[in-house]
Structures are given as C-alpha cells and as structure tokens.
Recover the amino acids of this structure.
C-alpha cells in the first residue's frame, strides 16, 4: 500500500514515510492510494474478533508485511489496546450502552479518558517502532484544543523511547483545568508543554512551516489528525461499532439496505474522515452526522457549501471541538470528488489564499448525500446533559451532549420517534470527569457531586491531586496581531525542539 497527497498523485510514499511526517510535502494530506474492500464475508470474519485482533486485521489492509511484520503489528496492537486500557475482567474496551433508541459508544475508557487514546496510542507505538528501526530520533509537535494533547503526552511518556520527544501546545485559558493538568502534572523527560495566547487554530501555521524542514540528525513529525495514522486507526472503532449495533438490531452483516447512522461530535474532522474512508471501503454506514458548537464551519459547509474561516474562535463549554478550519475536510473533499487531485489542489489553494471556499451545487449535493449536521448552542448542550441524567440516569460530557442534541435536531429521537430513521450510534468521545466546569453549569454543584460520588474514576482523582509544572509560555505582546506573532512562536517552537 502506497500513500499519496490529496493534491498531487505523483507524491507517493510508504506508510512509514507518511506517518513519520504528518503533512505531505506539498501541504496536502496523505491518503491511501487505494481503499480495500470490506464486504459481508469480511465483516463475518471480523465479528468474533477481540478489539486488538480486529485492529491488527484492519491495519494489515493498509500496511505491508515488509514495512511491519505480523509479529510486530500484533505487538503494537497489544501495547495500544490492551496494556494501556485499565479494564476489569470481562469489560469491553468500547462499551455500547443503550439510552432509549440511541447506542452510546463509550470511547473514553483509555488512559486519558477520551477517544483520542485509540488513534494516538497506536500512532506513537508505530513511530517508536520506526524510529528504533531507523536508529533516528523523531521530534513530534502537536497543538491541542483539549484532548489530543493529553493523549499524546500519555502515549509518549508510556513509550519511554529516547528516540521520541514531544512538544505539545495548548491555547491558554481555552481547555479545561483537568485537561491542562493531564499535561502539566506528568513530568516526563520526553515531553515539553507550552501554552500560547490565541485561539485553538493559531499554532497550526507555525507547526505546518516547521514540518516542512528536513534535518540530518532527526525527523520532525506532526501527530494531530492531519497525520494519516490517526484516521486510519480510528476506522477500527467504526467497524467495531457497526458490528455491535448490527448484532443488537439483528441486521445481517453487510446488508446495505439496513445501514447504521453515526452521530459524531466534530472539531478537526479526523473522526468523521475516518468514518468516511471506512464507508468508502464498503462498511454499511448510512448518514455521517456532525454535531458542532457555535464554531460552526462544518455545519455551514454541509448546509450551504460555504467553507469560510470565521474571524475569531468563540469560547464555548465544549472546547475540545472549537475549530476555525478543520484540516481533515481536505480528505473529505478528496474522496467526495472521486479522488480528483487537481480540483482538491485548486480548492485548498483558494482556501489558503482567501480563507474562503464556496462549493458549487453539485458538490453540496454530493456532500449532503453522505453527511448531515446540526449546530448546538451551549444552552442546548446543557439541556442534553440534563436530559441524559434525569431521564436515563446517564452522565455525559459536553461534547457527547453536542452530538446528542444534534441527533435530536436531525430527527433521531431517543424514544417514540419516527421509524423511518436507521439504527443510530452516538460517539461518546470523552468522560465527564474531564469537564467539571461544563457539567456543573448544566447539572449544578449537586449534580456534579453526585457524579463524583458514583462514577468518577480513581485515576482522575489522582491527577487532580498532583502538582502542576508551569508550561512554557508563548506571549502575544500588546499591539501585535496573531499573524505578526506567529513567526515568533514558530522560532520559539523550533528552538525548543532542536535543543531537546
């Protein structure tokens, strides 16, 4: 399997080269050169596998034996999905809980209580494998709006490979206190943590510029979800979800007349890009529904074709999906256009030059064939947290609540709704334990205390009790714009990485 740029088919590389870089050299995103077929027979073979076994089978479709021998692939899957998940005997790595007619897919039982653990653990273990085989250091850089950072910090720290180091950035005051503590209390010789005075997207350009550089002694690598490893690995939990929901609803595996719809809290679109790729492989997923907050570029492009960057990032109670420009939309456009590199290149250059892209009606119609979306306010999100708790005795985090509210707006009623809708799954992307402020605003102090008394994870309590180490600070001097300060932040980040 080769990997090519969304913008230029002549840029072709191995899985190792793609995952060890991040962006393609032309600024595009890597995608598989072709997509394997997943049919009813394949799904039947998958149905009895454990999650690590399923992971190895699916990843093998995208990675050759020459690049990662079978024994190494199985070991990476074991390290990623067994050793780091704190499960009791008989517990599932991804429990699926019914509340009303909704299948709630709990993706938050990993080491940092969020779905990012699935993609990040495996990516870091692949990078560790490749760096050892190359005998060359890999210096990783990441920017986070909440969950990616903690997942990466935990994975790099656990790998404890001197060849792997990480510089992680978060926007000051725009992530939860718990998420910040997950990064600033883990004292690892392999990790540096920095904050910056801007919005969640404001480190993207400095990082992209740094990743273009080549060095003799080490490689720079970006591990946000533009890295193809992340959505590739996240495809696995969509297959797992389909298999379990199909079984629950007595659906014959592979029956395209009875697809499963999925509602996803959506920020940078890595998760929904993974779902779209695996749907293109043949997995019977119906609608891919994006739940977004008032930073709503994804909703605007699905509804009207207007992919326009907002002037600023709005602060919300669902901070981990705050986004101005979701980079994985480029992968959606690539598969939406039947893998037309030329048109994707034209579209993305226009977006980079003007911060605006207007899709014609033909593309809007194609987009709406596979995707739907709904925008959710903080007030509506809080109402969903309350409803889940009061009606179903089920605690959810603010991002899952965005998806739940979006589902109901799109006609997926939890109880007593129209029978015309397909069976549907809602991705629960994080544990409520990470979002005390938002959950307390929704349920009140008494509601939060009830959650802490009944369901709060002990590992989360231990994190709260730890002492923080002050992060490195990237400042925004008075009178300077973000555009003016970004080159300074780029130099600061580069210096930190080169000297580490």
């Amino acid at each position: 399997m080769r990997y090519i740029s969304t913008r230029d088919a002549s840029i072709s590389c191995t899985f190792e080269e793609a995952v060890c870089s991040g962006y393609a050299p032309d600024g595009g995103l890597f995608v598989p050169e072709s997509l394997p077929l997943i049919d009813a027979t394949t799904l039947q073979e998958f149905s009895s596998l454990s999650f690590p076994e399923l992971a190895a089978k699916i990843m093998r479709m995208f990675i050759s034996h020459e690049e990662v021998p079978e024994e190494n692939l199985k070991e990476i899957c074991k390290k990623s999905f067994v050793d780091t998940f704190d499960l009791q005997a008989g517990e599932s790595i991804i429990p699926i809980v019914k509340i009303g007619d909704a299948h709630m897919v709990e993706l938050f039982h990993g080491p940092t209580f969020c779905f990012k653990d699935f993609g990040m653990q495996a990516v870091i273990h692949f990078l560790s494998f490749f760096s050892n085989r190359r005998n060359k250091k890999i210096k990783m850089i990441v920017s986070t709006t909440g969950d990616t950072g903690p997942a990466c910090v935990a994975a790099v720290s656990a790998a404890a490979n001197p060849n792997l180091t990480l510089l992680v950035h978060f926007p000051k005051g725009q992530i939860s206190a718990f998420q910040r503590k997950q990064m600033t209390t883990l004292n690892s010789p392999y990790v540096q943590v920095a904050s910056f005075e801007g919005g969640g997207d404001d480190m993207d350009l400095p990082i992209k510029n740094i990743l273009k550089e080549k060095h003799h002694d080490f490689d720079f690598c970006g591990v946000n979800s533009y890295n193809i490893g992340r959505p590739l690995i996240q495809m696995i939990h969509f297959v797992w979800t389909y298999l379990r929901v199909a079984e629950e609803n007595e659906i014959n595996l592979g029956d395209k007349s009875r697809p499963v719809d999925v509602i996803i809290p959506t920020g940078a679109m890595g998760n929904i890009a993974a779902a779209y790729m695996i749907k293109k492989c043949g997995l019977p997923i119906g609608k891919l529904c994006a739940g977004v907050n008032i930073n709503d570029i994804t909703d605007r492009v699905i509804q009207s074709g207007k992919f326009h960057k907002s002037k600023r990032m709005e602060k919300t109670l669902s901070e981990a999906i705050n986004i101005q420009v979701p980079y994985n939309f480029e992968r959606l456009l690539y598969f939406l256009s039947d893998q037309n590199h030329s048109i994707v290149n034209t579209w993305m250059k226009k977006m980079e030059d003007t911060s605006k892209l207007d899709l014609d009606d033909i593309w809007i119609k194609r987009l709406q064939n596979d995707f739907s979306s709904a925008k959710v306010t903080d007030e509506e999100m809080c109402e969903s947290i309350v409803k889940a708790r009061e009606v179903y005795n089920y605690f959810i985090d603010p991002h899952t609540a965005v998806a739940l509210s979006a589902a109901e707006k799109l006609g997926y009623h939890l109880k007593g709704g129209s029978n015309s809708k397909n069976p549907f799954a809602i991705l629960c992307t994080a544990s409520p334990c990470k979002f005390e402020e938002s959950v307390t605003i929704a349920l009140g102090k008494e509601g939060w205390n009830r959650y802490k008394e009944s369901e709060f994870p002990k590992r989360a309590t231990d994190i709260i009790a730890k002492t923080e180490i002050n992060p490195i600070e990237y400042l925004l001097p008075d009178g300077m714009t973000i555009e003016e300060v970004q080159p300074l932040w780029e130099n600061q980040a580069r210096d930190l990485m080169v000297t580490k």
About this structure: The chain has 19 helices and 16 strands. The mean pLDDT is 94. The radius of gyration is 21 Å.
